[in-house]
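Cross-check.
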Amino acid sequence: ASETGTTTDGSVDAGMGVAISIVQVTTTQTIANVDPSITFNTAPKAGNAIIVAMTCFSDIDNCTVPPGGVTDNQNNTYLRVVEGDTIISQPTHGARGYIFIAESIGAANGNFTVTVNPNGNPMMNYQTFAWGLIEVAGLATTSTVDRIGATTNTCCNTSTSVATSQPTTLA
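Predicted model, tokenized:
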């Protein structure tokens, strides 16, 4: 095993001789009033992780994306690891951030499309999403999220209050 550090290609060696690296990302999309979907340009590799990051704005119920609210057409399971506090802009308007992860995905059969299905009917509850996907190699195949920290709702900076305790995991 090697020490934790940055490798020559910019990826992070997690101390187990396995580099954590970003394989591909989608362009960030902003879409309104539909249940949004994004398709990777290239099918992700089996065993990698898919991270879904989004901010959702809603007119009525502050855009709630429940556990199970992110799916793909390859039957992978997405774990909701972050549901941010609601940022209220008006009494009936609000936004919140989310992060979901699918660990150790299966082999893709054709296009790889991820869809978000928030609570509520978009036609009755105007919703806008800014979101994107990241394929990551080298993360742990299970229990990728080692710890969950807390943050206060202070506009534009996000950090966690704890570090990971295991290599190849996220905090």
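Confidence is low (pLDDT under 50) at residues 1-7. The first strand starts at residue 5 and ends at 6. Passed to J.P. for a second look.
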